[in-house]
Each structure stands twice: as C-alpha cells, then as structure tokens.
UniProtKB/TrEMBL annotation:
Keywords: Antibiotic resistance, ATP-binding, Nucleotide-binding, Transport. One of its GO terms (biological process) is response to antibiotic. It is a peripheral membrane protein. PROSITE patterns: ABC_TRANSPORTER_2. The keyword Nucleotide-binding applies. It is found in: Cell membrane. The keyword Transmembrane does not apply. It holds the Pfam family ABC_tran. This is ABC transporter. One of its GO terms (molecular function) is ATP binding.
Length: 306
C-alpha cells in the first residue's frame, strides 16, 4: 500500500481495533456470535442467503464452455448444473481443467465460448450483478499481504459495499471462527500457508454470498482447522447457501458433498448425486475407473527390501 490512504479503510491496526464491537453472549445481540437459539461457533446466521434456493433452482449453469491456451484445449464443451442448496464437489487429476472451469464460471477468466449463469444472471453479460451473488476462494490468487488479517477482511467487506458496522461485526466473527483472531494484527505476508488459506476464505465469506466457490480450500490447512471449515460450510449450505469445492481428496469430497462431478482432460466424465456417480463403489474407486491411468507395478528391483 506504500502509505497510500483509501476512503473508509482502516489505515492501521488501531483504527481497525477501535471499530471492534464488544462481544456478547446474548444470542439476540447484534454482536453475538451469529445469534441463534444457542450460540454455535460454526453457525453463520448473518451469512444465510437472503433467499434460500427454491425447489429446482439452479445456482450455477454452464453450457458449452471452452478455453484454449495456445495448442492446448484446457476445457472442452463443458456442461454442468449445480442445484441451489447443494454441496457440490468437483474432482479431477492435475491438469484436468478444474481451476480453469471455476475461473471462467466466476468471471476471473473469459472463456473462448459458452454461457455461464449464476442464479439466472449471465456472468459475462452482467458481470457485476453475478459477482454480487458469489464469494470466491481462487487457487493461487495473490492477496494484499502487506495488510494485517483484520485489515484485509475489513477492506474486502468495504469493497463489497457493506456498511462499516456490518463489516466490523462480520470480520470479528470470521476471524474467531477460523481461529485467526490471535493473529488479526499480524501482516498476512507473515502468515503460514494454512493461515493464508483461511484468511482468503474469510474474505470470500464476508459478503454473505448465495454461492461460494472454493478452489482447493483445504490445501495446507491443518486437520483441526479443516474440520472447523467443514462445519462452517455445512452450516452455510443448511441455511440455504450453495457451495462448490474442488479438491484432490476423494475422501473429503465423499464426506462433505451431496453432489459431485468428475472432470478429466477438459471434459465432464460423470456428474450427479454422490450415489449416482459412485455407482456402488467408493468415490476413489469410481474416479480411477473413469479417469484411468493407474498402473500396477512393483517398482524397480532396487526398491524392494527382499
């Protein structure tokens, strides 16, 4: 930031701290941890979408999506429907086109052809309206890492057009939920890889989106934090939100998601409910069957002890 000031931005930790509300254990209080009949540390009452998904409503619809990088066709005529209120897993090997597909679906990368709609809003015809509906954790995107964690989430909330008191409350809630409150005044550049992933998730959640798109959200995250994040996301879906998560972990997707799509070589090989895609096998077994490439080898002789 090099000392440049921005309207409404907390210019230092003291400014950000002065906005922090006193916490309350009263579930009816505006500063209570998300309020509810009981105080649940993984409940996101304020993050519940304004309108829960109607029966049959599609949160994300992709038709004929294509993207080429030079001679490589990374995404080939992908069609995909993500029902509103679902926890949707996107799995595939490295280089399958998962990140490219999600980047195009969230207006981070323009496709060569195809149509993407988010709750019937065309992503490339009305990009701003579409972006207001989503929160995104994109793989490899750089953060403003010369800000503290508190400043970063606050800044994202203000950029989303939220009122400062709302941003202050939500920022405090998210930092506490993700176990980042002890490091809220530490520069993000000094965060570990797992902490950086969690602060990026906080930025994606602060606007209380209807659709949350997460590219490898559990990469470099410790098991306790991963369990906490799973609970947060499950609560978000239960409240009417929709989550799309890409992951290499078949076990994780199998435990979290109710719907899944398998992508390889830029194409959708299977998509549907978890039970439909598994077809009586484990997700990992079905994935290997669909994608192929597994070899049964003992390895070179010098690797065998006896």
């Amino acid at each position: 930031m090099d000392g440049t000031t921005h309207p409404g931005f907390p210019h230092n930790d003291t400014d950000a701290e002065s906005d922090a509300p006193e916490r309350s254990d009263d579930p009816n209080s505006a500063s209570a941890p998300f309020g509810s009949e009981h105080s649940d540390s993984t409940s996101l009452a304020w993050a519940a979408p304004d309108a829960a998904g109607r029966h049959g409503e599609v949160a994300l619809r992709i038709r004929g999506l294509r993207k080429r990088f030079g001679d490589k066709e990374a995404v080939r005529d992908i069609d995909l429907d993500v029902p509103a209120g679902s926890f949707f897993g996107l799995v595939g090997p490295n280089g399958a086109g998962k990140t490219t597909t999600l980047s195009m679906a969230t207006a981070l990368l323009r496709p060569d052809s195809g149509v993407v709609t988010i709750y019937e809003v065309d992503v490339w015809k009305d990009t701003l309206a579409a972006k207001r509906l989503i929160g995104v954790l994109a793989d490899g995107v750089k953060l403003f890492d010369r800000l503290t964690g508190l400043q970063l989430v606050t800044y994202y909330g203000l950029l989303c057009g939220l009122e400062r008191p709302v941003v202050v409350e939500r920022t405090g809630d998210l930092l506490a939920l993700l176990g980042l409150d002890p490091a809220d005044r530490t520069l993000v550049v000094d965060y570990s890889a797992g902490m950086t992933k969690k602060i990026a998730l906080a930025c994606a959640l602060v606007r209380a989106p209807r659709l949350l798109v997460l590219d490898e959200p559990f990469e470099s995250v410790d098991p306790v934090s991963a369990a906490n994040i799973r609970d947060i996301l499950t609560g978000f879906v239960a409240s009417g939100g929709t989550v799309i998560v890409s992951s290499h972990s078949m076990d994780l997707v199998e435990r979290m998601c109710d719907r899944v799509a398998v992508i390889a070589d830029g194409r959708v090989l299977a998509s549907g409910t978890l039970e439909e895609v598994r077809a009586g096998s484990s997700l990992e077994e079905r994935f290997v069957e669909l994608v192929g490439g597994r070899t049964h080898q003992e390895g070179p002789a010098w690797l065998r002890i006896s």
